Amino acid sequence: MKQIVIISGKGGTGxxxxxxxxxxxxxxxxxxxxxxDAADLHLLLQPEIKKRYEFKSGETAVIDQNKCIQxxxxxxxxxxxxxxxxRKPQTAHRIIIDPISCEGCAFCSLVCPVGAIKMKENTxxxxxxxETRFGxxxxxxxxxxxxxxxxxxxxxxxxxxxxxxKQNCDWVIIDGAPGIGCxxxxxxxxxxxxxxxxxxxxxxxxxxxxxxxxxxHFGVSVKLVINKYDLNExxxxxxxxxCQDNNIQLIGKVSFxxxxxxxMVEGKTIIEYSDGKAKKEINQIxxxxxxxxxx
Length: 295
Ligand code: SF4
Ligand code: SF4
Fold this sequence. Notes:
Bound molecules: iron/sulfur cluster
CATH superfamily of the largest domain: P-loop containing nucleotide triphosphate hydrolases
């Protein structure tokens, strides 16, 4: 079984379009959406949720107002200014913890002389096992203002891998997180191939270079796709040269094709939607990828 992740140096390069197309093309696979901060693979794959789980991560301090004697010690020790006094007229004088600012260090609970502060586990989001018209999909949704995708991504990947092993699949196809932060690093560990999608712009090349450096640092084999290459063929040429100079396989180029957007609007992959240029080119990329692993 091979695990491939589709990543990009920044969002909006067409990474999910390519992932969705691979989901339609690969014969025997499980999909994972590790772009948990802005998951959108479900828009193309229209999953039917079969199992739903809470994702718990970190702790937040909570005050029992009935026990609090308002001594203010917790305010003094909180380095994150998460605790304040409510002294508004006409409301009860209370010590309040802002759950967004609280970093869960638990210092306040240790200094409270009356044991009024308890640490409560956070529910940061949910993760799901779903069925799609192309097979199983593991995906997740973070709660508002939650930033624990560095922990959620390995969970989503692990569950997708377990399902793929159980179903005897040949592929785990992963929509990775954009950028170079914690979630993308978590998307890369133990991967057989990272497919980097970029656009023919200077910033596209710069962002691709950064994410390629991260992938190489973790010893992951990298292949590159230039999406909408014909919008700036001169820049696409520079990216080709960059690939040659840095010994990176340019596995394909995809033309700008209006049917890609139309397919998205209809909740379909480009493979199902049209017989245009982009479909043929992505098809060729998948064939090359498959044959690279057969060699
Ligand atoms: S747990 Fe730490 S960060 Fe949160 S309120 Fe208490 S002292 Fe502040
Ligand atoms: S340390 Fe405990 S008793 Fe004192 S203000 Fe904070 S919560 Fe209330």
